Amino acid sequence: MPSATNGITNGATNGVPNEANGASQQTRPYPPGPPKSSFLTTMNGAPVQKPAASQRIGNNLRATLLLQDINLLELIQHLTHERIPERLVHARGTSAFGWFEVTDRIDDVTSAAFLSEVGKRTPLFVRFSTVAGERGSAETVRDTRGFAFKLRTEQGILDWLFLSTPVFPIRDGAKFPSFTHATKRNPESGLPDHSMFWDYFNNNQEAIHFLMFLFSDRATPVDFQHADCFSINTYRFTKADGTFKYVKIHVKTNQGVKNFTLPEATQKAGEDPDFHTRSLHDDLEAGNQPSWDVYAQVIDPEIAEHYPINIFDATKTLPYEDFPLRKFGKIYLDKNVRNFFAESEQSAFSPTNIVPGWALTPDPILQTRSLAYADTQRHRLGTNFIQLPINKPEFSFTPLNRDGNATFSNLGGIPNYYPSSFFTYTTAPQYAQPDEEHWQGTVLDFESELTDADFVQARTFWEKTLAKEPGQQQNFISNVAAHLSQAVDKVRKVTYAMFTRVNADLGKSIETATEAEVAKNAAPPRPPVKAMGTLNIANLEAKQAAHGTGHNVGIFAHKKRNLQA
């Protein structure tokens, strides 16, 4: 894959070519090579003779600094503003460049230009992440992994926001805040709270299928290269004539799936919290090209309407025997980012970044994500985040969106309203309206209810999937016990009952293993607190003599004391 297609292409935004880097295409959003000169300057370009010096009265360390020291002021003021708000979820992540290639025809179900012919390549950017942890948290901990792909198609940017588990813990959008809060820190103590975690799931047991994946070894992958990912939500492949098929995407690693056990993941988190980032970085620097095959589960709308599983329920999967995987592409990675902040931290993804041939559906979680993702980027990066090089499309024309912080292209005198007598707007080509979009019904407040059907796929995962994998059932019990044992007694009892609904033996095994952990970790009696010694100020002269003459000699010369008094 030619390097010029991997990463940032300047293109044009709002109809204006971006030529800031002096070329029609660049692989990075900043000028290549060294600067014109090697001496440091202030922000406005003035040379700085002594970058590490600071202006002061008195030629020694004890002195008063001056507000006229422009270099010092700029350095400190910029430092205190260098950080932007971290992502609420997916804060800990790493990124790479690569491309998507069509391997098999899929144009019978979609008119998407980037999928129009076998062998066609589309540049992409990917951000891998954990979900619950903060920006500096350990990467090998138990968690879902995020795979966010930004495909730079000729018809616009398409974002795929996938996860390493094939199911989601909720199917009602209003539960998003509660689920997110319960998997983070206690608002009073600022500490992880296992009682809070399990209490949430005890009261929202439609998440049981998700929990089966989360506490299997699938939630502690060796690295991102050895993990699969899934769209979870249902999307649509569309054609220009208005016909469509529903689709779920599966992305399967060609490196093989490899997972840590809990002890291995815990040890690695302590030894190298950045292990996943380091693994991907070193892999690409060594010239390797990790890859994933991309498959579609194509669902006919007529079948979806009568199928026993609701295809818009993100807590469920669709069986392969009824909806076989259809391969249509391959993802390759070959380049690391060269500016982590500019490229990885400032990257912004949203399921609303769609292109002709790919569309949203009435999936309630997808609809909720469509609101949340773009909105959080405006909070993190400002209203013009789309103008940042890593997010900029090849071409866009948005005269109705104006101003805001960090506006680089504003279209000048082109009318900022529509329609206008002073500018001719052409009609954009559109697909025919699909039948699915014809709605008629009563507006009401709806919340899904828990039924026995919510435990069927979790039971299958336990009794058939994990049972075929040596040691995985025991690992699952141990993983749950290690986490659940840190919850309070009344929460643990409800959790045992929840897993009993999956399988009676499973519930009993988890209870036995968890209570054994509780007994083992019972806190021993606290030893008495010893009184602390006090510093004898009369010995300070001897201490200073032992340390030699230091920078603080003479600082307090105007406050001499008789240390023998």
The low-confidence parts are 1-31, 553-561
Helix share bin: 25-40%
Class based on secondary structure composition and strand pairing = alpha+beta
Bin the strand percentage: 5-15%
* N-end to C-end Cα span: 81 Å
| Beta strand count | 14
Largest sheet: 10 strands, antiparallel
Reading the helices and strands in chain order gives EEEEHEEEEHHHEEEHHEHEHEHHHHHH
What is the number of helical segments per DSSP (H or I, 4+ residues)? 14
Residue-averaged pLDDT, rounded? 89
Molecular shape:
globular
The whole-angstrom Rg is: 29 Å
In short:
The protein is of the alpha+beta class.
Structure description:
By secondary structure, the chain is an alpha+beta fold. It has 14 helices and 14 strands. It has helices at 70-79, 176-182, 194-202, 208-214, 262-271, 275-285, 301-306, 340-345, 364-381, 456-465, 472-484, 489-502, 504-520, 540-547; strands at residues 12-13, 16-17, 56-57, 64-65, 93-102, 121-130, 145-153, 156-163, 229-230, 235-238, 244-253, 291-299, 325-336, 358-359. Helix 4 (208-214) packs parallel to helix 10. Residues 1-31 and 553-561 have low confidence and may be disordered.
